[in-house]
Structure formats: C-alpha cells, structure tokens
C-alpha cells in the first residue's frame, strides 16, 4: 500500500480498519452513535490525483475499505458472510452431540 499520509508528511489520516471496532459500531452500535459517512472524495485536503494513483495501486475492495467507507465481502472468501449467517439456527439439531471437555 502507498503512503499513509495523503495530506502531508506530518499528518496521519484517520482511516478505519475493516471489521474492526468502528465497523462493528457502525453496523451494530445502536442509537448511541450519530453516523456520518465521509469518503476520501469528500475531504478537500486529499489530493484527487493522489487518490486516483492509489486506486490504480491496490485492489478495488481494499481501496473501497480504505478510502470509500465501504466494507464489502472479500472477493477471495471461501464462504460468503450471509451463507454462514443463514446456517446458524436453533431450528436444526446437531448431527453429533456437542461434548465439552
């Protein structure tokens, strides 16, 4: 990944991490939070030419997560998130008893 300082050499940007604390709070933080979505394109301090160069350097899913506030499923995931969620149910009994050691 390119430089972590798109504004200047002494200012870090505040990018979040996919599936980290801020993602969980955005998705399930309840009404205690006011959510405002601001992408890199909305920030006048980030040079559009620098952002365009970053887009060419990294995969689209990484760019979207890092700069566009879009945390999508990874393209190379073995299982889709929704498929796993759909498989979790109390309606189906396990084939084998769960033994706790």
Query: Total number of β-strand segments?
Result: 0
First and last CA, distance: 44 Å
How many helices? 4
Quaternary state of this entry equals: single chain
Query: What structural class do the secondary elements suggest?
Result: mainly alpha
In terms of DSSP E residues, the strand content is under 5%
Radius of gyration: 19 Å
| Unreliable parts | 1-5, 9-16
- The helix/strand series, from N terminus to C terminus, equals HHHH
Averaged pLDDT: 77
Fraction of helical residues: 25-40%
Largest sheet: none
Q: So what's the overall shape?
A: elongated
Short description:
The chain has 101 residues and is an all-alpha fold. It contains four helices and no strands.
Compile the SSE list and pairings.
Elements: H1 21-28, H2 48-57, H3 60-67, H4 81-87
What report would you give on this structure?
With 101 residues, the chain is mainly alpha-helical. It contains four helices and no strands. It has helices at 21-28, 48-57, 60-67, 81-87. It is elongated and about 60 Å long.
Features of the shown structure:
101 residues; mainly alpha; 33% helix; disordered N terminus
């Amino acid at each position: 990944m390119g430089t972590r300082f798109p504004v200047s050499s002494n200012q870090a940007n505040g990018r979040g991490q996919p599936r980290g604390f801020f993602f969980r709070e955005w998705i399930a933080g309840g009404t205690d939070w006011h959510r405002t979505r601001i992408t890199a394109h909305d920030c006048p301090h980030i040079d559009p030419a620098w952002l365009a160069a970053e887009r060419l350097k990294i995969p689209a899913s990484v760019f979207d997560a890092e700069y566009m506030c879009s945390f999508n499923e990874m393209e190379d995931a073995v299982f889709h998130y929704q498929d796993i969620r759909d498989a979790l149910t109390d309606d189906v009994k396990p084939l084998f008893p769960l033994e706790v050691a």
